[in-house]
């Protein structure tokens, strides 16, 4: 009897304890959710104000007008004051100390709140405000810069045209040098921003700004750098063939001696990150066909592509609010000419900032940028809280945009749109070469030059007196590219790249995105379309649309590694990219017979 009563008592105590524990856990959950909801409401208001101010600063730049800079600075300061407030940090940490009692979605949102706080901690308020002001000034100097050739103002699009078409070496050099003059005005600003960015995140325990940005992937600096080195090593044999081919082809084209390293002004891109302009595929003359269509057609056709996959038409507000085309000739303002997609309020206000002209490059870019837009649309749903409305990782966003840009340029896709004649004979090797000069060439630039320069900048506190020396040493080591003439430290050529200034310590996003691009594209081609990955047509395939939407709609609610494995069956790897370009290696080895290779056999 006693044993029975004792057992009953123990069970009763256990039940009471469980009930108390459940009530306590329930209170923690409800308290955490109330905190998250209140934070989200105020965050969305301030985030939207900041986005609108940034939009004005990027789309309407008037020399001497300081109002945009003032309003942008104030809006960003208000957002920073809120996200980095001490009470927010304290409360978030307190809830995360009891993470085992919270829902997984609550934990993810709280981690996002704390991550945002590290960018603007109130414990370093003076530094944060200085940094916001410095970033605003840097952007205005960058996007308001008056590029000139022989004393005459030119647009970035005109510089790109010259580098893409001109065969006169002197004219090419003048255009290339003009594109780098902006660095003189940005050098001091970058040095100041490097210090301010480091000091900001160090206030919450990060080693440096590079380490802070990398941590968003759940990786250390060393892990990220090693991963990028692995990508370079994987593509290096093919890159070495492309580099050798380009040296000889361009020397013949320009009537020059074959150089050991590629002169930067010989290449069709200001930064040497994309050499695809060196090849024109016969039978595919997109530029003339697109010129007939006009700029507006490019944007609307990109939308029609996504609609054909099963996505909804974009709201009229998207077209009303976006800035799609270059500033009119003679306009009293300038705009940022770098294409970008904006999720202004993390809800319904979606916009694009572009300078579309009817060319093949902008045709691909419109498909890329609308890839971002439809990513926004997909994860703006009740299952994804506003704080988690982002890509699975930052590279995912770029991967989807770039993948759909690639798909839109493949021959069966172009035939479907009647942009090239059906059944037109094309040289498939030249098509593959053109693509490799884009995608493969980009890896040593993104995973090599940009990633290592910014690592050196933020982790090793690279001196401003060595910016150009370090930049050009990395350009030579990773890409085999050298400047036309000696570039002293009065220049800061790295700063001519937008991302160095306003999207700092994140360029490895693009390197990873290219690997993800081919991995996801390979899965779609082989498992859904049952087509050769080099010749696909996504257009009108609702199954492809469903696969994409299922991947996009979860936003950042899932771990990116888990999502990738779940959707493609594989972890991140470059195999699909290497397989895609494998037929090109044999061709290039034949072309390069008897030629001297000047890059080492191994990257490292």
From TrEMBL:
GO terms, biological process: proteolysis
UniProt KW keywords: Disulfide bond, Glycoprotein, Metal-binding, Signal, Zinc
Keyword flag Transmembrane helix: no
Record: residues binding Zn(2+) 2: 368, 372, 398
Stored InterPro entries: Peptidase_M2
A single GO molecular function term of this UniProt record: metallopeptidase activity
GO CC terms in record: membrane
Superkingdom in the source lineage: Bacteria
Keyword hit for Isomerase: no
Coiled-coil residue windows: none
Record PROSITE patterns: PEPTIDASE_M2, PROKAR_LIPOPROTEIN
Record-linked Pfam families: Peptidase_M2
Binding site for chloride: 217
Gene3D superfamilies hit by this protein: 1.10.1370.30
Positions annotated to bind Zn(2+) 1: 368, 372, 398
Active site: 369, 499
Protein name: M2 family metallopeptidase
Organism for this UniProt entry: Fulvivirga lutea
């Amino acid at each position: 009897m006693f044993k029975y009563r004792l057992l009953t008592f123990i069970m009763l105590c256990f039940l009471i304890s469980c009930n108390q524990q459940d009530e306590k856990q329930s209170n923690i959950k409800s308290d955490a959710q109330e905190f998250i909801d209140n934070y989200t409401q105020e965050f969305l208001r301030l985030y939207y104000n900041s986005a609108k101010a940034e939009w004005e600063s990027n789309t309407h730049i008037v020399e001497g007008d300081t109002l945009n800079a003032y309003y942008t600075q104030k809006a960003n300061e208000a957002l920073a004051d809120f996200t980095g407030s001490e009470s927010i940090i304290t409360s978030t940490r307190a809830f995360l100390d009891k993470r085992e009692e919270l829902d997984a979605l609550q934990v993810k949102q709280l981690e996002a709140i704390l991550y945002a706080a590290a960018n603007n901690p109130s414990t370093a308020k003076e530094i944060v405000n200085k940094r916001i002001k410095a970033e605003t000034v840097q952007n205005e100097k960058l996007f308001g810069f008056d590029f000139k050739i022989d004393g005459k103002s030119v647009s970035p699009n005109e510089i790109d045209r010259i580098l893409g078409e001109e065969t006169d070496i002197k004219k090419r050099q003048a255009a290339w040098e003009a594109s780098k003059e902006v660095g003189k005005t940005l050098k001091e600003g970058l040095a100041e921003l490097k210090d301010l960015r480091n000091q900001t995140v160090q206030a919450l325990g990060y080693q440096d700004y590079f380490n802070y940005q990398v941590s968003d992937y759940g990786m250390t600096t060393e892990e990220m750098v090693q991963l990028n080195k692995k990508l370079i090593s994987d593509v290096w044999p093919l890159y070495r063939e492309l580099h050798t081919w380009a040296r000889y082809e361009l020397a013949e084209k320009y009537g020059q001696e074959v150089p050991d390293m590629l002169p930067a002004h010989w290449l069709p891109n200001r930064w040497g990150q994309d050499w695809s302009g060196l090849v024109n595929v016969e039978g595919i003359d997109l530029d003339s066909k697109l010129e007939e269509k006009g700029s507006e057609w490019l944007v609307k056709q990109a939308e029609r592509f996504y609609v054909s996959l099963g996505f909804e038409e974009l709201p009229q507000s998207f077209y009303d609010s976006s800035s799609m085309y270059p500033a009119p000739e003679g306009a009293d303002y300038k705009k940022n000419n770098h294409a970008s997609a904006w999720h202004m309020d993390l809800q319904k206000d979606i916009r694009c900032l572009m300078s579309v002209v009817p060319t093949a490059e902008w045709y691909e870019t419109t498909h890329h940028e609308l890839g971002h837009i439809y990513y926004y649309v997909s994860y703006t749903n009740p299952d994804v809280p506003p704080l988690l409305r982002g890509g699975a990782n930052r590279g995912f966003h770029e991967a989807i945009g770039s993948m759909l840009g690639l798909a839109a340029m493949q021959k069966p896709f172009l035939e479907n749109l009647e942009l090239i004649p059906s059944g037109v004979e094309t040289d498939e090797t030249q098509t593959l070469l053109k693509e490799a000069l884009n995608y493969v060439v980009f890896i040593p630039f993104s995973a090599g030059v940009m990633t290592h320069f910014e690592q050196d900048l933020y982790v090793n506190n690279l001196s401003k007196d060595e910016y150009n020396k370090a930049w050009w040493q990395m350009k030579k080591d990773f890409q085999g590219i050298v400047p036309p003439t000696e570039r002293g430290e009065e220049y800061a050529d790295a700063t001519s790249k937008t991302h160095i200034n306003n999207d700092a310590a994140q360029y490895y996003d693009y390197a990873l995105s290219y690997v993800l691009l081919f991995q996801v594209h390979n899965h779609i081609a082989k498992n859904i379309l049952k087509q050769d990955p080099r010749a696909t047509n996504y257009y009108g395939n609702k199954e492809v649309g469903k696969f994409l939407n299922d991947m996009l709609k979860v936003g950042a609610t899932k771990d990116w590694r888990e999502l990738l494995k779940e959707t493609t069956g594989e972890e991140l790897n470059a195999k699909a990219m290497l397989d895609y370009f494998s037929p090109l290696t044999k061709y290039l080895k034949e072309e390069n017979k008897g030629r001297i290779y000047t890059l080492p056999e191994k990257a490292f």
